[in-house]
Write a structure and sequence with these properties.
The protein is an alpha/beta fold. Helix content is 45%, strand content 17%. It contains eleven helices and seven strands. Strands 1-2-3-4-5-6-7 form a seven-stranded mixed β-sheet. The radius of gyration is 18 Å and the shape is globular.
């Protein structure tokens, strides 16, 4: 049945991976080598708001002729009360119009990160901006890097605690960022020639009971009208029930069911 076929394929395909060019722990070549060692045959490198790691990943893949690397990106977008991440597959990373937008995003991320560090310091949680930049290792700076700095400084035990107590949307050190709507992201990707896919849909679903936030099915229906071609049905920590639920929505809306680990 389709479940067995998809589960078997998931051991060979991972369409959601991050490198040190955003908030991953491995550089592109290391990630490619790890994927090969795990028996994967098709992967997508999908860093947050950055394509800078793609040339290195594609170069590393030349040593592994049985591995296909799909150039991709993950764009962060906002809806009232929540975030939606949009993956773009087969992105043209040499498109200068796209790169201009991404440079503006990265600059906004850096300014946002600095402001969050200032807020944390004002709360008595002293970490340095220089250390946050060192942790990012030249990649696009994000909240996970700040969370790691908080762990290193002994202010929290785990990165999740940093998000829960300080860096989450309602946390005392949270700072908003440049806003991009899901439809903006889809239009940007379509204009680039990439294929837009909704990442980890249940992350939006858990917040869908907030005032002003539409249900997941409605949200995905609206995004499909805007050009969405797929959604992440198979994900690193999804249960069988979640997979079944999301696969039903994908089938109903004629969206490609995609999957990935979201490995960092």
């Amino acid at each position: 049945n389709w479940t067995r076929r998809i589960v078997r394929a998931m051991f060979e395909v991972d369409l959601h991976l991050h490198t040190t060019y955003s908030d991953g722990t491995l550089d592109p070549a290391e990630l490619v080598d790890l994927c090969v060692s795990r028996g994967l045959s098709v992967i997508a490198i999908s860093d947050h708001d950055s394509t800078e790691g793609l040339p290195e990943a594609l170069a590393a893949a030349r040593s592994h002729p049985h591995l296909t690397v799909i150039p991709a990106i993950e764009l962060s977008t906002d809806i009232p009360g929540a975030e939606i991440h949009i993956l773009g597959y087969y992105v043209d990373y040499e498109d200068q119009a796209l790169q201009k937008v991404l440079r503006e995003f990265r600059q906004g991320r850096e300014e946002r990160g600095q402001r969050m560090v200032e807020k944390l310091n004002a709360l008595g949680l002293n970490i340095s901006w220089d250390r946050v930049r060192e942790i990012s290792d030249g990649g696009a700076i994000g909240r996970p890097h700040i969370a790691q700095a908080l762990v290193e400084a002994g202010h929290v035990e785990f990165p999740k605690e940093a998000f829960d107590r300080y860096l989450g949307r309602n946390g005392p050190a949270y700072v908003g960022r440049n806003k991009l709507t899901p439809l903006d992201a889809i239009n940007l990707l379509i204009g680039n020639g990439a294929l837009p896919v909704m990442a980890h849909p249940t992350y939006s679903e858990t917040k869908s009971d907030r005032s002003g936030v539409p249900t997941l099915r409605q949200t995905i229906t609206d995004l499909k009208r805007g050009g969405l071609v797929g959604m992440e049905v198979f994900y690193g920590d999804y249960t069988a029930d979640q997979v079944s639920y999301l696969h039903g929505i994908a089938t109903e809306l004629d969206l490609v069911p995609c999957g990935g680990s979201d490995y960092h």
